[in-house]
Design a protein that fits this description.
The protein is of the alpha+beta class. The protein is built from five helices and four strands, in the order ααββαβαβα. A four-stranded mixed beta sheet has the order 3-2-1-4. Helix 3 links the parallel strand 2 (48-54) and strand 3. Helix 4 crosses helix 5 (108-137). The longest helix has 30 residues, at 108-137. It is globular, with a radius of gyration of 16 Å.
């Protein structure tokens, strides 16, 4: 994402708006805040990182744009990075799960199954990734 503006003052307090906002959308099965703001760190180039897992809707791109607009209006910033977890590669989903704050949990069993599968695959991937990087740069 190309960074244009700083996050508005008081963004940390506005993050509390995300939970009820995302819960209202029945297409959102579970959602996380991740990145720096999830761990309480805000830097000049920070943005709001949100990951959502959607039900079996057909038009994920349209839903993504709607959610970005809704979140952007509520938080008063365009510095939103919204990711659809259904389609995310394991290398990214695993990194998100390592540092996340749960916002919505409509189906806990599905979320637990997703997290378990992704973390198992991510650990396997991480070993291969380290081997490749070691061979490449050693």
């Amino acid at each position: 994402m190309i960074k244009r503006n700083k996050l508005p003052e008081g963004i940390a307090e506005r993050l509390d708006l995300l939970k009820p906002l995302l819960e209202r959308d029945q297409r959102v099965v579970f959602a996380y805040l991740f990145g720096g703001l999830a761990s309480g760190v805000q830097r000049p180039l920070s943005d709001v990182d949100i990951a959502v897992y959607l039900d079996n809707c057909r038009h994920k791109a349209e839903v993504k744009l709607e959610l970005i607009g809704t979140v952007s209006d509520a938080l008063g910033t365009d510095e939103i990075d919204l990711l659809i977890l259904n389609d995310a590669p394991v290398s990214l989903a695993g990194r998100i799960l390592k540092n996340r704050r749960l916002l919505v949990d409509r189906l806990p069993f599905l979320r637990h199954a997703f997290e378990s599968r992704v973390m198992r695959e991510f650990f396997d991937f991480s070993r291969k990734e380290q081997d490749i990087l070691f061979r490449r740069f050693a």
